Target: ornithine decarboxylase
Amino acid sequence: MSQVEVISATCHIDFGLSSSPVQDSLSISYQEKLSWTTDLVSGLLSTSPTVGRGAHYEPRDNAVDSLHHLDEDRPIFPGLPPLLRGHPSTHMRNGIMRAYRLAAANEPDAEKAFFVADLSVVYGQHERWKRYLPQVEPFYAVKCNPDPYVLRLLAALGTGFDCASNGEINQVLKLGIDPGRIIFANPCKAVSFVRNAAKAGVDMMTFDNADELHKVARAHPGAKLVVRILTDDSKSLCRLGLKFGAPLASVPGLLAKARELNLDVVGVSFHVGSGCYDSKAFADAVARARAAFDMGKEAGYEFGLLDVGGGFEDGNFEETAGVLGGALDRYFPDRQGLRIIAEPGRFYVSRAFSLAANIIARRAGDGGNPEDEIDPDQPTVMYYINDGVYGAFNCILFDHQHVHPYVVSLGGSFHVPDAALQRTESCSVWGPTCDSIDCVCPLAHLPSALQVGDWLGFDHMGAYTICAASQFNGFEVSNVVYTCGGGVGAAEVRAVLAGFAREGHGAE
Ligand SMILES: *Cc1c(COP(=O)(O)O)cnc(C)c1O
Model:
């Protein structure tokens, strides 16, 4: 499927996708230097047609037509990067073409890796949440990805926020949202943080031990406490029970202590573990929460809050929602006076971010000993890309992720023939630092025609990536290009954010 998109109405340039756009873009850079401003070019590129990933081009909108809407591209939040329009893969290609132009202009760090964030995915996940779990209010777990656009969009959509530190609380309050929409969901907090929460009006907070109760009694006696109970986290990528959660047997003692200290305990929370792949864990956890509710009654409390935590996955969300909904109906049939909240993180952002990384180096063996048998599962080529486990791919170390590269450009072209895609060889993919732990993929199968300068893409890079990236070895954290998407939800995202800004919220 070859397409030729023509933006030449205004600038006499033909982006011939059927030939080699990368080479085209190089020629653009020279003309650009002659007569164009970079802004004009990126404005035009940002409204260019929708193109699918790799060699598969998808239907598109009309580039010339979309020029009429350029005024919609005025910044919604001055100080934040622009919010572009169009399919994320278009922006991945635009970013790559821009990198080629910068390289041609001898810019340092021209080929820097970058993220593309599609906010319509976040919007879509919220729609999905409301549809399948309408009885549960989401409090987005800020730690998962405190991206300024993600936080603004979710604030505008009316979610609450799960904050774990003073910094996160301040970041969310700065958006202009009510402190009642925050739960301080870290059971072990610094006293100064508790004091600041009190000052800011953040009352809801979790605890799972008696020392915390003493701290809260001193620093925030008016807190609305939530007891975090231990549940079975063995079916998740990241187990949290090792660090947090009161065993049910200890709950009566804790509640008695809270009573003694004149503290208000309003409910129960749990977290089944991040990246929970067994929906049944939620049913078991709700059953335990029921027991904790009954313990509350014994201790003289009337609990009105159930916090079912995070752990929701994109892949099995509907199933999990079904299991959770069923358990809620079974163990909490009477919802009178009961507020149910959750703390989803990964679910909202994982699929919304993709990363484009440049192959900066390649090491291929010299063929070795010709008598050696070639083992197809033994990498023969090593690729080095410009983001790694000290950066965005820290999710491999901390979040136990396996990432899967796909080819975005091959041999300097976005036009990747199927035959070339199919001629693969086993390889390994490495980050840019000098540490050998910096391995992105120990074994992958990528086209043997890949060259230094080509680009790889990685999807599902929104959760627990950017937020924990370091600048180890002098490599900067990858930037983010934002789009409101090229399809369903795009107009809504823009309208929701614009409305939020009009109300005076979200200014930097
Ligand atoms: C990390 C965390 C979350 C978010 O978990 P996800 O698996 O990303 O949904 C929610 N609540 C608490 C207390 C957490 O520590």
The chain has two domains: 120-346, 350-481. The chain has a mean pLDDT of 87.
